[in-house]
Design a protein that fits this description.
Elements: E1 2-4, H1 6-16, E2 20-22, H2 26-31, E3 38-39, H3 45-58, H4 60-71, H5 75-85, E4 92-95, H6 101-112, E5 117-120, H7 123-135, E6 142-147, H8 153-162, E7 166-167, H9 170-174, H10 191-203, E8 211-214, E9 219-220, E10 223-224, H11 227-235, E11 238-242, H12 245-256, H13 261-270, H14 272-275, H15 277-288, H16 292-312, E12 319-323, H17 329-348
Parallel strand pairs: 1-5, 2-3, 2-4, 4-5, 6-8, 6-11, 7-8, 11-12
Antiparallel strand pairs: 9-10
Helix pairs in contact: 3-4, 7-10, 8-17, 12-16, 13-15, 15-16
């Protein structure tokens, strides 16, 4: 079996399109895994817990014997699963938590049935160490698109991407649109999975070129932006998009109007203390009457205040304002690219 360090392991697997089998238990896998990896658990959750306890209390030998008892009946199933997925017996990649006995045991088994196996040195633990390093790196050409809630920042980022600009879609990776309403009908990944997906996206970017992100708060739903990225975002040049209130309300009604009113009510209740009882009750009455425009305006009273507070804490010299009227997102994105180019020339001088 070939054993590779994390960078070579991922590069080989991704460039050659090799399947990556994660032989950790299902609960370990669900908490976080290498994007696109396939769970091929050697132990069930209960077996892993039992063997781990044996290792601590009675030593390595007893744990190994218990492991053999547990996996013996499963060996044929493990081999058959991989053979069914890869009948041509091409190269495959395998890892466990530390690159120890679990991956080595499954690797040995699959070699016996004809596979060419590559193991990950240091296992998933080594992968996570790389993730923390990558997502904490410096981004000298980071540019931020900001604006009050409902300003259409996601549309603008898409326009920038269509122009060939590098865009890091944080809300897309978090599967959350921000605010108490952003998680309606969506299930966010775990914090670990969010960071893993962020690492994969960053790996595709050229740090020497501009990278655009949205002006997110520290939290996107229940997920936290990496501390290093948060600090850099707060100091990076900000393109603040100004949009008329009526247009923002129309956009929010269109975005959330098809959702179940029960979900909207629950979201308002989640911010009742911050919004205030009077405004919350007014919003709930508006929802009951089918008047989503009024409900949106009540919510914006809170979110606009929060965003303005954050904006006031920024260095004003880093903020440039753009009014977005009737032009297309691509037209505005073009203006932002020209602004960024001029800003970079000025900075270099």
């Amino acid at each position: 079996m070939l054993t590779l360090p994390i960078k070579d392991f991922l590069r080989t697997a991704r460039q050659e399109g090799l399947p990556i089998y994660d032989v950790r238990s299902p609960c370990e896998f669900e908490n976080g895994h290498i994007p696109d990896a396939i769970n091929l658990p050697l132990f069930t959750n209960a077996q892993r817990a039992e063997i781990g306890t044996l290792y601590k209390e009675e030593g390595r030998q007893e744990a190994i014997l218990a492991g053999l008892d547990a996996v013996g009946p499963r060996l044929r199933t493990l081999a058959a699963t991989v053979l069914e997925a890869s009948p041509q017996k091409g190269p495959i990649s395998i890892h466990c938590w530390r690159g120890g006995m679990r991956s080595q045991s499954v690797g040995w088994l699959l070699e016996q049935v004809g596979f060419e196996v590559t193991l990950l040195q240091g296992g998933y633990k080594a992968y996570r160490a790389q993730v923390h390093k990558i997502i904490g790196q410096d981004w000298p050409k980071l540019r931020v698109v900001g604006g009050l809630t409902g300003s259409g920042k996601t549309e603008i980022l898409l326009g920038l991407r269509n122009l060939g600009e590098q865009v890091l879609d944080l809300e897309g990776l978090a599967n959350h649109r921000g605010s108490a309403f952003g998680g309606i009908d969506r299930v966010s990944p775990s914090q670990e999975s969010f960071e893993n997906a962020l690492d994969q996206e960053i790996d595709r970017l050229d740090p020497k070129r501009r990278v655009w992100i949205e002006d997110e708060s520290r939290m996107i739903g229940r997920l936290a932006l990496p501390e290093a990225m948060w600090r850099q975002k707060c100091g990076a040049p900000l393109a603040f998009i100004e949009v008329a209130l009526e247009r923002r309300v129309d956009r929010l009604v269109k975005e959330y109007g098809e959702h179940d009113p029960v979900d909207l009510v629950a979201s308002f209740e989640a911010i009742r203390k911050r919004l205030g009882h009077e405004r919350t009750d007014q919003a709930l009455r508006a929802i009951d009457e089918g008047d989503l425009s009024t409900a949106c305006q009540e919510a914006l009273a809170y979110y606009d205040r929060c965003y303005q507070y954050g904006l006031e804490r920024r260095n004003e010299s880093t903020v440039s304002r753009f009014f977005w009227g009737d032009e297309s997102p691509t037209r505005l994105a073009t203006d932002l690219v020209e602004w960024a180019k001029k800003e970079e020339v000025t900075h270099e001088k």
